[in-house]
Design brief:
Elements (H helix, E strand, L loop, with lengths): L1 H10 L4 H19 L3 E5 L1 H5 L8 E8 L8 H9 L5 E3 L5 E6 L1 E9 L14 H10 L3 H17 L13 H11 L2 H9 L5 E3 L9 H4 L9 E3 L15 H16 L13 H7 L4 E8 L5 H21 L4 E8 L4 E8 L7 E8 L3 H10 L3 E4 L2 E7 L5 H8 L3 H6 L2 E4 L2
Parallel strand pairs: 2-5, 6-7
Antiparallel strand pairs: 1-2, 3-4, 4-5, 8-10, 8-14, 9-10, 11-13, 12-13
Helix pairs in contact: 1-6, 6-7, 7-8, 8-10
């Protein structure tokens, strides 16, 4: 398809190898000075040949000889990197960030030869790279690039808890399994129920019976080829799963390069969209901290505000949010322009629960019964969406999870 060739020409990087190799050489020299038995190599999408133009995060893995198995290799790595003044990042095993043209994430791993020797899930990452290279050619790796860019364009890329989308690792497996980007989309259109992808047929069609039940909550089960007991797609949420399927169908019906373009929120466009209704915009300042944790807090606040609108019976037509992964986030909500009644109906217990019904009557002077249940009418606090908005920015729950929130004019 000519369209895909054009997209690929725009997303394949050029000139990155020189910069990355320069940085690797710098690390090699530091390792030699340390006299530690460590190997330095690029990992992730750079090593797989699936890196995208415009990406800035580069994974560098430092393989420590197994003789260091009982030592804290994060501390050993800190000693090696000390001249570069790295930023420490806490995780299941601490790693480091250094910004030098690219954002290099330098991860300590053990130089394992077998999965059973791994002391941390990161120890197996080099094996994932080897698996991709062994099971794909250049054409398939370009198709993986297309799949990643497609998922970025439609907003379903990333396994972080605030995104709940497709990780790069999962897309590697899916594109290889289905034999290309277009075949992947065509297969996704037919997905229904619980979808299982077991590339090496490790479970012989019985993955749902054999795998740990806690790993099977996601709508898509992707058996990890390196660690078969693991569902590589466990972080995928139902909404992002459905959004991917819908967009796969739309693209196949009407192919367009727009599917691969990352969309930014356009406030002027939102104002046009909301014509005749109420557009509510919040400028939000994120807290400091690890991206996944900070992002999860922003997501909770975004969802909390939506729940507040619905709880007070306002009609939410559309919503969305955007975060620069640094400090600034923008939340938007489009609400039906309406003035609600002075009172709203408050439901009590069913008449069969006599003691609770009596308590309800004591609490509320005017009650009535309908269809076996007791009700009352209460005075409404907010009749217009704008009235509730003013209270939202004062909410204690919200202000505990963000650095600041204000109504955007």
């Amino acid at each position: 398809m000519k369209l895909l060739k054009n997209v690929l020409g725009k997303i394949k990087p050029n000139g990155v190898d020189r910069e990355i190799n320069r940085f690797l050489d710098k690390l090699e020299k530091l390792v030699k000075k340390s006299s530690l038995d460590v190997k330095v190599f690029a990992c992730g999408s750079i090593a797989k040949g699936t890196f995208l133009r415009g990406d800035h995060d580069v994974d560098i893995f430092m393989k420590f000889n197994m003789k260091y198995v009982d030592e804290d290799i994060s501390v050993l790595l800190m000693d090696i990197l000390e001249p570069l003044k790295p930023e420490l990042v806490h995780g299941s095993r601490d790693y480091f960030k250094i910004v030098d043209k690219f954002c290099f994430e330098i991860v300590p791993v053990l130089d394992i030869k077998d999965v059973g020797d791994a002391k941390n899930v990161t120890d197996m990452s080099p094996m994932h790279v080897d698996w991709v290279i062994k099971n794909s050619d250049v054409g398939l790796r370009d198709d993986i690039r297309l799949a990643k860019q497609f998922c970025k364009g439609i907003g379903v890329y990333g396994a972080e808890s605030y995104i709940k989308g497709f990780s790069g690792h999962v897309l590697d497996i899916l594109v290889i399994h289905y034999g290309g980007f277009l075949n992947f989309l065509k297969s996704a259109v037919g997905w229904s129920g619980k979808v299982i992808v077991d590339h090496h047929n490790i479970y012989g069609g019985n993955a749902l019976k054999e795998m740990n039940k806690s790993k099977l909550i996601s709508p898509l089960i992707v058996v990890d080829p390196i660690m078969p007991e693991r569902n590589a797609a466990a972080a995928l949420g139902k909404d992002k799963f459905k959004l991917f399927i819908d967009n796969a169908k739309s693209f196949l019906d009407n192919p367009s390069a727009d599917f691969f373009k990352i969309k930014k929120i356009d406030v002027d466009e939102l104002r046009k969209m909301s014509a005749g209704n109420v557009l509510v915009l919040f400028d939000v300042t994120a807290l400091d901290g690890k991206e996944d944790v900070v992002g999860a807090k922003l997501l909770k606040v975004f969802e909390h505000i939506g729940v507040a609108f619905r709880k007070h019976e306002f009609t939410l037509i559309g919503d969305g949010w955007e975060w620069d992964k640094s400090k600034k986030a923008l939340f938007w909500y489009i609400l039906k322009k309406e003035v609600l009644s002075d009172e709203y109906e408050w439901s009590g217990p069913p008449l069969s629960e006599e003691s609770r019904v009596e308590n309800f009557k004591k609490k509320y002077a005017n009650t009535y019964v309908r269809e076996g249940k007791i009700y009352t009418k209460l005075k409404r606090k907010f009749k217009r969406p704008t009235e509730l908005v003013k209270k939202i920015v004062e909410c204690e729950y919200i202000n505990e999870k963000v650095g600041g929130i204000k109504i955007k004019k």
